Amino acid sequence: MDVPKDSLQMSGESCMFRRLPLLTVRGQEAIDEVRRIAEAFFWDIVGIEDPAQLRRQVKRNSVRVVLIDLRGAMHSAMSWLPSFSREFPYLQLVAIIEKTQADNPAHASFLHAYFFDFCFAPIEPTRLTFSIGHAWTMARVADLHAASEIACGLDGDGASELVGRSEAMQMVRRKVHRYANNNLPVLITGPTGTGKELAARSIHQQSDRAGKPFVAVNCGTLSPSLIQSELFGHEKGAFTGATKRRIGWVEQAHGGTLFLDEIGDLPTEVQVNLLRFLQQGDIQRVGGDTTVTVDARIIAATHVDLNRAVLDGKFREDLLFRLDVLPLAMPALADRGVDVLELAQFYMQRFCIELGVKRKRLSPATEAAMLTYAWPGNIRELMNRLRRGIVLADGQVVSLTEIKSHYKDQSEFPTLARAREDAEKRVIAEAIVRAGNNVTEAARLLDVSRCTLHRLIRKHGMSVG
Q1: How far is it, in rounded angstroms, from Cα 139 to Cα 145?
Q2: Are residues 173 and 322 in the same domain?
Q3: Which of 88, 216, 344, 429 could be bridged to 259 by S-S, CB 3.0 to 4.6 A?
Q4: Cα Dmax for the chain
């Protein structure tokens, strides 16, 4: 490899070369081809042989754009790139691909998720220089955004497990940070298994209460006969079996945060006491005659519609008003697009460590199927399937069969063929919408002939206009 240039003297002026790592499995010939095109535009091309070397290059040097040659390396990139992108979120990636690779719906989704732009081979010089130049400009904008997030504390440990690049999760992280800066109640809504407790913990960890207790209580699992005692505590002799004073969950959260999960399951008689605590900041233990002042922030969560519960007489409207001060909606996993692959990479690494096994990865077929599966159990289901796959996989690759349920209908998880068909249909529908129902324009966007597009429309039973 050539020694990187730091600067070039031209007409008495100093023109800085911009470092551009090129990851390719095609050897020196590919590196020389890109260098001939890009060097005249002040790009310093650095040949890279594998992802580990790329990581070292990015960490050691000022790199804003990376060029990745996916010719013959698409499947391997789908395995390592999600974690790489999570590690360097403000790096702009440009790909070199074969046209046939883009015809694969799973590959198209992968490119859309992780790459700023791509160029077809054989490389067209104008297209390449435009793509990497535009990526450089956007990387500079991302630098400013990153500096802003660091200044606001959004890069701290409190949000480290709120994984995902989708707009929905970016909004969640922004709200988590904003809500952490005050003590007002937060109401987190969303389907079961979407990470509501994780969001609550992140709010607590980013707040000035981080060094104090975080007490999580699932209201749906509390004993109906002892719920008052468990929440608010009791005095010795308050009832049969109360042989000593008990400090309740609310009081245990003093100075910190009390997370009330499934708040919609709280009995109406207990809702009155919780409302009093929110209004006055004190509680009374069962069997006690004095009040105890408690400083605890309340974060509540539910998967049910509390407004409907109010209409049905199952939840107090005045309590809902007290709880629903700062709303936070957690999106379903099926609505987060390629976040599912990033989450899978994140949890695969964690579970392999927890289970004491060598690091494993998902097969491309499994990842493609994950993108089209409905995930009714959301992140919780994803985690359970990954644990199962890690245990059942004999080698280091977890296949689709190994993460399927073995006690439910096997048809619930898509085959690769169905995943491809669903992805193809989705991409076609999006192109038709973008083209304003103009088939010719939609065919151009998809890089197929008009006849081919008509055939695909008939195949999927779709209509135009």
Answers
A1: 10
A2: yes
A3: 216
A4: 94
